[in-house]
Amino acid sequence: MTSTLNHNKIQQVVDNDMCIACGACIEACDKNKIIPAYNEYRGCNEVQILDTTACLNCDTGCESVCPSIEVDFQKLIPEHSNLSRDGNYISVHIGYSPKNQFNGVSSSGGTLREITHFFLDKGIPVLCLSAESELADGKYNARMIYTMDEMERIPGSIYHSISFSDAIVQIRKVEKCALVAIPCHLEGILNYIHLKEPSLLKKIVFKAGIICGWMYSDHSYLAFSKFHGIDEKITSIGYRGEDRIGKLKFYTNRNLLYFSRSVFNTLHELISYKASYSTDVNRLRCRSCQDHLNFLSDVSVGDAWLKRKRGEKLSIIIARNAVGVELLENLAKKNRLVIEDGTFEDVIESQSSNLVFGTIARKLNTYLSKNRKIYPKFIFEDKVLQDEITVLDHLKFKIEFIKRDLVRAQKYRTYKFIYALTKLKQLSIIYLKIKIKKVINIMKGSDI
Q1: pLDDT tens digits, one per residue of 91-130
Q2: Residue 90 to residue 19: CA distance in whole angstroms
């Protein structure tokens, strides 16, 4: 008999680092053979198939709901018959929540926290990423938030591996809810609802989408701690507060350690940080993503680092439909949000044209296809876009996968050496700019 592992696409998704723990396949499997799991080698939350022989001759369709196999925007957003690469939208805004902008937790303007607060005030629970308690161990999962006190468990930003595998179960349990999610989790939930349980859609009164760059595997903080000689067990991690961008904070049983993510005293510090939090340590599904702007949401929200705003903590806000427009108008009238009109050029400036249009992702997916590896197919305008790759592109991806293998084998120092060799010019320029800026700031201070 031919091994089912060669044919089971869910297993291929897992083996190729494409599973993002959205929970869709778990709910679609009526044999209860798929469960949440954590993989030490890949350093991430994913799923595990308990018995692959049960997949033989099975037609329950767990593969059809997986967002790492296919996301057909034409079916999921029928009102947009020709979905373009901007995801289709009504308006773009720049704004902030006066209450949450400088709370030390929100990553930019505090807009998503204000939206969450708005629905809680109306007695509508919010399904979002949250810790089990304020003293959680850095693990964040899908949780239904009912009170303002529970909002303290919501992270401002989180970059290491997370799980949303319980989200669909949580939606079933309530009469109605608002949903806050990153793109791939929203894709999985809506894939499942569209194909398996349409009645759940009526329970979701609003979809707030996080504009998401990527998720790192847990090797990111493990490598960083290795480079900095941190021997204590890391119990939790924070990424916001203390300065404009937010410091990297490691919690241990005895200490709280702070590290700047923008100012580095030595080239070694710069390389250690950049290597630990590089695209080589991204989840491969994130590198393959073409939906960073969260097309399936009612409102998409992300950081708005715009030159003309001189580093202000602001949100880029995209209203994608009438429901989203109505909410923003309501919040603005009540002074819960301060917003101004923006443009799609602001979206590109703040997020980069690469993430907005999936430039590298399309090339990577072509590379994966040529190497017979599974990758997510994103259907825009009734077609799957791929880009031809050059010899140089092929070489870059080859080197990236070598570095990925080193990271997963926890050969962090060897990886850092190769990373530094391949990025030496860029790293030197970044370090020089930091030093020049520091000198300028010192000179300005001496003139006062």
Answers
A1: 999 999 988 655 555 657 889 999 999 999 999 999 998 8
A2: 32
